[in-house]
Design a protein that fits this description.
With 312 residues, this protein is of the alpha+beta class. The protein is built from ten helices and ten strands. A hairpin with a 2-residue loop joins strand 9 and strand 10.
Length: 312
């Protein structure tokens, strides 16, 4: 039997305790006629060590990659490189109307319901005998065309606003916003503002407390101000930053108690808009719970408040 191999330095133990050690020679073959009686072949630890200079030679062959710093990309620039999914609902006006109660949803037009019928359908689905989720929020979605009627090539800008609700409601996860009011030195206005729900109200003394760091404007979600107090609070514009009262956001008002009520019990509306679809925008906002104590009157009032509100 012939075993073919290549050795540099090794020691082998064969039959009859005869040890053969060959150093500095290369053997291409060993002929062993009595192989079944061979004990073992052993390689010393010196044979397993790497050759001198091997690691240095391999290290020279490796080319170090240059680390390239990625340039900063804004949110809009990152969105350009991402796959965009159109938010606009698909137009099915050219599809046929369904003629049966059971049909393929993709091949026919959308079923149109009145507001009362849509709410009633949700109530049947969320009834305790079905899904048993009576306190689920009732979400209103409004799709809007952002093109100007007389200038179709130009589109409107998105906006944020607060809609005054006829009856206030709190859903799970919602909290009552905190309001800080700047009012002139009038005791009657101060009492009415605090009665309306303001967390703190005052005049120049609050301005000084903010400047000294005793009060932080970040602790309040909204800051309202009387027009006569605007010159007094300009010195703290850098401290309250984006919460500085403005006429556009409705936080500067002559009737401070009414403004506090609107902010405390109002509904925050935010228009969702994308530069990929400049002529389309949408609004999603809760208008109550699916099964409310006031049955249908509360959702209808909130629906009308959102639809007929002065948005934008």
């Amino acid at each position: 039997m012939i075993i073919r191999s290549v050795f540099s330095r090794y020691s082998a133990s064969l039959v009859n305790n005869q040890c053969i050690q060959i150093s500095g020679k290369i053997i291409s073959s060993i002929t062993c006629f009595n192989f079944p009686q061979a004990m073992n072949f052993h390689l010393s630890p010196q044979d397993l060590a790497a050759r001198k200079g091997t690691r240095a030679r391999k290290a020279k062959g490796k080319v170090k990659r240059e680390e390239k710093l990625r340039p900063f990309l804004s949110r809009l620039e990152r969105e350009k490189h991402q796959i965009y999914e159109n938010k606009r609902p698909f137009d099915k006006s050219h599809y046929p109307e369904p003629i049966d109660d059971v049909y393929f949803y993709r091949k026919y037009q959308y079923t149109q319901w009145s507001f009362q019928e849509a709410v009633q359908n949700h109530r049947e689905i969320h009834h305790p005998t079905v899904y048993n989720m009576p306190n689920s929020p009732l979400i209103l979605r409004i799709d809007m065309d952002f093109k100007y009627p007389k200038r179709p090539q130009k589109c409107m800008d998105p906006w944020k606003t607060i809609v005054e609700m006829k009856t206030s409601f709190l859903l799970p996860g919602m909290t009552v916003p905190s309001v800080l009011a700047f009012i002139p030195n009038d005791v009657n206005v101060l009492k009415a503002t605090l009665a309306a729900g303001a967390d703190m109200a005052g005049g120049i003394e609050i301005v000084k407390s903010i400047q000294q760091g005793e009060i932080s404007g970040n602790d309040y979600e909204y800051i309202v101000c009387h027009p006569l107090m605007v010159p007094e609070i300009t010195s703290i514009r850098g401290l309250i930053k984006k919460k500085f009262p403005t006429f556009k956001h409705g936080t500067i008002d002559v009737d401070i108690p009414n403004a506090v009520k609107r902010l405390k019990g109002g509904l925050k509306i935010h228009v969702v808009h994308s530069d990929r679809e400049p002529d389309y925008a949408s609004i999603e906002t809760p208008i109550g719970t699916v099964i409310s104590n006031q049955y249908m009157s509360q959702p209808i009032m909130h629906f009308r408040s959102v639809i007929y509100s002065k948005t934008g």
